[in-house]
């Protein structure tokens, strides 16, 4: 995945396409009980989404539920990458309000509509 340029919205000020909370890579490593190298590998393998905010790579907190990455997230990220989305575009897609879902695709990934989000990501790819 490519590193994104710093965005105008800060990590503490969510914008219309930003999650409410962020985790740094060391925070994610601690939460998942993994090495920082493994977190970097997960980002490269599109198992996690990281973007730069205030010059630091961060991961949306809600994508790392408890001590696990959301089950369908890697599939959705790979589908969006196949559609040509970079990290910032994937973030915007995940956090764009969708009236047919409970809020955003990112929020729906944590619930019963995860497969619907994956289906929609697949439709974007084609």
Automatic annotation (TrEMBL):
Any idea where the Rv2175c C-terminal domain is?
71-125
Please give the superkingdom of this protein's source. Answer: Bacteria
Please name one Pfam family that this protein belongs to.
Answer: Rv2175c_C
Q: Which InterPro entries match?
A: Rv2175c_C (IPR041098), Rv2175c_wHTH (IPR048576)
Q: Which residues form the DNA-binding protein Rv2175c wHTH domain?
A: 22-63
Single GO MF descriptor: DNA binding
**Name of the protein in question:** Helix-turn-helix domain-containing protein
Organism field: Micromonospora humi
Q: What is the lineage of its organism?
A: Bacteria, Bacillati, Actinomycetota, Actinomycetes, Micromonosporales
